[in-house]
Automatic annotation (TrEMBL):
<protein>
    <recommendedName>
        <fullName>Asparagine synthetase domain-containing protein</fullName>
    </recommendedName>
</protein>
<dbReference type="InterPro" id="IPR014729">
    <property type="entry name" value="Rossmann-like_a/b/a_fold"/>
</dbReference>
C-alpha cells in the first residue's frame, strides 16, 4: 500500500475537487460530479442525459449470463424501490449510481460490501469517511468504526445497505420487501438452489482467481460446498494467529481446535489449501498506520499485507468468498429468545451489549432511536427477531464488516452466495428452530457436497459422533439404562459398563447418576476389591422409598436388580479432589 494512497475510492460532490486519490472526473448532472480512483472497476450505460454507473461488479441471480450492459440498461428504465427487480436480484460487490431526469439515486449490494458514506445534508457521498472528513474539514469524533451507522466524523454516516439515497433530497428504505410472498422452509431451500446454480454459472465465466477461506465453523464449510462445481478454480486458505504467541489460554485452545478441524478436513477431501500463520505484530508499522488512517480498523493488517504481496501481479481482483453473511441464516441470539416474549427492552439491551457497551444504557437508547430515524427502520412490529436481523445486516454487515473488507482493497474483491436482497428477504422467513440447529447450512451442504457434513464444526461433533452416540444410547436403553447424568457408557463382552465423568479437581461439583429399569433381573457390581480403598467412593441405590449407601469395595459382591423396578444410582466421591485411577475404581458393571 503506497503511503496515503487509497484504493477503490470514489466521491460524489457538488464542489470542484482536485484530489490525488480520485483523479478521474465524471459529470453526473449539472451540479454533481463523480470522482474515482484509477483502480476502481467502473462501467456505464448512457442514454442522452441519463445514465447508470456501476462501481464494482453485479450479477443478476435470475440471469446467469446477463451482461453488465443489459443490467444497467434495465436499472435505468426501472423505478428503484424495495419491490423492483434489480434492487432485489443483484448479487455482487457494488455501488450503483442512477442519473435520470437530473435526479441522482444510488444504492449498494445487499450486505454492504461497498456501502458508502454520506453527509447529513445528503450532498456528498464517498467510499471512505476520511475522504469526506478531509474534503469538508469535518471534526473527527471516533478513532474506530464499529457501531450502528456511525463514521469517525461528525455529521457523516454510513448509507446502510437497506437504504437508497437521492443526492440532495432524501433516503428511502429498499429492504425488506413488504410484498414478498411468504415461503415455507423447503420453498426457501428450492429458491436458494436456483440462485446457486445461476451464480456458479456466472462465476465460471469470470477470469478472477477464486479464494475460499476455511475455518472450523459451518459457515465456511457451506461456502466450500456451494462452490464445489467450480472445481479446481477454487483455492482455499486459512489464516491463523501464531498459536504460541496467543497469551490467553482459552483463545489458544480455540485456535488449536480450529486448526485441527481444518487439517482433518483438507487431508480427507484433498483440496488445494494454504495455511497462513501470522503474529499480530508482524506487520510493517508504516503500512499499518496508513491502513488505520483510511479504514479505521485494526483487524487483519498482517494478513492484508501478505495478500497484497502474494497477489500483486494478478491482472483481475482476486475474489475472496466471505462466509460471514451466512450468520444471517443462524440464530446468533441468546437461546432464551426462542421462547421469550421479546420487547423493545430486549432490542435496547442487545444493541447496548453488542455495539454501544462503552456508554450508559440510557444514552444507548437515545442513539438507537436516532439510528432508527436515520435508517427509516420500521419499529412498528411485533417480530423482534426479524428487527434484530435487519439491524444486523445494516449495522454489523453494512458498517463494521464493510470496513474490514477495505483492508484488502488493493488486490481483492468479495463474493457471497447470500448477497442479494431476494435471498436476505427469504432468510427473514427461516424458522427460528431451523436457524438454531444450522439446518439450512446442513441441507445446502448435503445437496452440493454431502461428505462435508461428516466433519465436525467448532462446538459440535461429526455425523459419525452423533450416530455412534445414538447407537450406544440405543444399546444402553436395551439394557434398561436411562437418564444418564455425567456418565459415559461402554460394553465389556456381554456386560454394560457405567463410567463416571469425574471432575478431578472438584469431585463434588457434578453429580454422577443413572437410572436403571430392566425387563429381566440383573446384577450391578464393581470390580474394585482393594480393602485399602474403602471409604473413598460410595454408591447410593434408591428404589421407591428404599435407599442404600454401599461402599464401592463392598459393591464388588454385587447388588441384585429386580425386573421392572426403577433404580436410581448415584456414585459419590468423598474426597474433593482425586486422580484418574479413581475413575476406574468408581466404574460400575451390570449383567
Amino acid at each position: 500500500m503506497e503511503k496515503y494512497k487509497i484504493h477503490k475510492a470514489f466521491i460524489i460532490s457538488n464542489q470542484e475537487l482536485e484530489n490525488e486519490h480520485v483523479p478521474i472526473k465524471i459529470a453526473l448532472n449539472n451540479d454533481y460530479h463523480l470522482y474515482i480512483s484509477e483502480d476502481i472497476i467502473f462501467e456505464s450505460y448512457i442514454n442522452n442525459e441519463d445514465a447508470v454507473h456501476l462501481l464494482g461488479y453485479a450479477i443478476d441471480i435470475t440471469q446467469p449470463n446477463d451482461s453488465t450492459f443489459h443490467i444497467l440498461k434495465g436499472i435505468l428504465h426501472e423505478t428503484l424501490s424495495s419491490k423492483s427487480h434489480y434492487v432485489n436480484m443483484l448479487n455482487g460487490s457494488f455501488v450503483i449510481i442512477k442519473v435520470k431526469d437530473g435526479s441522482i439515486e444510488l444504492f449498494s449490494d445487499a450486505a454492504g460490501f461497498r456501502s458508502p458514506y454520506y453527509t447529513l445534508d445528503l450532498n456528498v457521498v464517498s467510499s471512505h469517511d476520511k475522504l469526506i472528513g478531509d474534503l469538508l474539514n469535518k471534526k473527527k469524533k471516533y478513532q474506530r468504526i464499529n457501531a450502528l451507522d456511525y463514521s469517525r466524523y461528525e455529521d457523516v454516516y454510513k448509507l446502510v445497505p437497506s437504504l437508497k439515497l437521492t443526492l440532495g433530497s432524501g433516503t428511502e428504505r429498499i429492504f425488506p420487501n413488504p410484498d414478498l410472498i411468504h415461503h415455507r422452509y423447503q420453498e426457501i431451500l428450492s429458491e436458494m438452489k436456483k440462485h446457486v446454480k445461476n451464480l456458479n454459472a456466472s462465476l465460471s465465466e469470470r477470469d478472477n482467481k477464486l479464494l475460499v477461506g476455511i475455518t472450523g465453523g459451518i459457515d465456511s464449510k457451506c461456502t466450500l460446498a456451494l462452490s464445489k462445481s467450480l472445481g479446481n478454480r477454487i483455492n482455499t486458505f486459512t489464516y491463523m494467529k501464531d498459536i504460541y504467541g496467543i497469551q490467553d489460554k482459552r483463545a489458544r485452545q480455540i485456535y488449536k481446535n480450529d486448526k485441527m478441524i481444518v487439517n482433518r478436513l483438507i487431508k480427507n477431501i484433498n483440496i488445494d489449501h494454504e495455511f497462513i500463520e501470522f503474529n499480530v505484530n508482524d506487520v510493517d508499522e508504516e503500512y499499518s498506520k496508513d491502513m488505520f488512517e483510511w479504514t479505521g480498523t485494526t483487524f487483519n493488517h498482517p494478513i492484508a499485507e501478505k495478500f497484497e504481496k502474494k497477489y500483486a501481479k494478478e491482472v483481475e481482483d482476486v475474489f475472496q468468498f466471505r462466509s460471514v453473511i451466512f450468520s444471517n441464516a443462524k440464530f446468533d441470539y441468546p437461546k432464551e429468545y426462542l421462547h421469550k416474549n421479546l420487547s423493545f427492552q430486549d432490542i435496547y439491551e442487545h444493541i447496548h451489549h453488542k455495539q454501544l457497551q462503552d456508554i450508559s444504557f440510557e444514552k444507548a437508547i437515545q442513539l438507537t432511536h436516532e439510528y432508527f430515524e436515520r435508517t427509516q427502520t420500521n419499529i412498528e412490529t411485533n417480530n423482534i427477531i426479524e428487527l434484530l436481523d435487519i439491524i444486523h445486516i445494516d449495522s454489523r454487515m453494512g458498517n463494521w464488516h464493510n470496513q474490514l473488507v477495505k483492508e484488502t482493497d488493493r488486490v481483492m474483491d468479495f463474493f457471497n452466495y447470500l448477497n442479494d436482497r431476494k435471498t436476505l428477504n427469504l432468510l427473514l422467513h427461516l424458522p427460528h428452530e431451523i436457524r438454531m440447529y444450522n439446518l439450512f447450512h446442513k441441507d445446502l451442504i448435503n445437496t452440493y457436497w454431502p461428505i462435508l457434513n461428516f466433519f465436525e464444526d467448532n462446538g459440535s461433533g461429526t455425523l459419525y459422533d452423533y450416530e455412534r452416540n445414538e447407537i450406544l444410547h440405543t444399546i444402553a436403553a436395551h439394557g434398561g439404562i436411562i437418564n444418564e447424568t455425567n456418565m459415559d457408557f461402554d460394553l465389556d463382552e456381554e456386560m454394560y459398563v457405567l463410567i463416571p465423568k469425574v471432575n478431578l479437581k472438584d469431585t463434588q461439583k457434578l453429580k454422577y447418576k443413572v437410572d436403571i429399569k430392566r425387563e429381566e433381573d440383573g446384577l450391578l457390581f464393581s470390580t474394585y476389591t482393594n480393602p485399602k480403598g474403602k471409604n473413598y467412593i460410595s454408591v447410593k441405590i434408591s428404589e421407591g422409598n428404599q435407599e442404600q449407601l454401599i461402599d464401592i469395595v463392598d459393591l464388588s459382591n454385587g447388588y441384585k436388580l429386580l425386573s421392572n423396578k426403577l433404580y436410581e444410582i448415584e456414585i459419590i466421591y468423598h474426597k474433593p479432589t482425586t486422580t484418574s485411577s479413581w475413575i476406574k475404581a468408581g466404574t460400575l458393571y451390570m449383567k
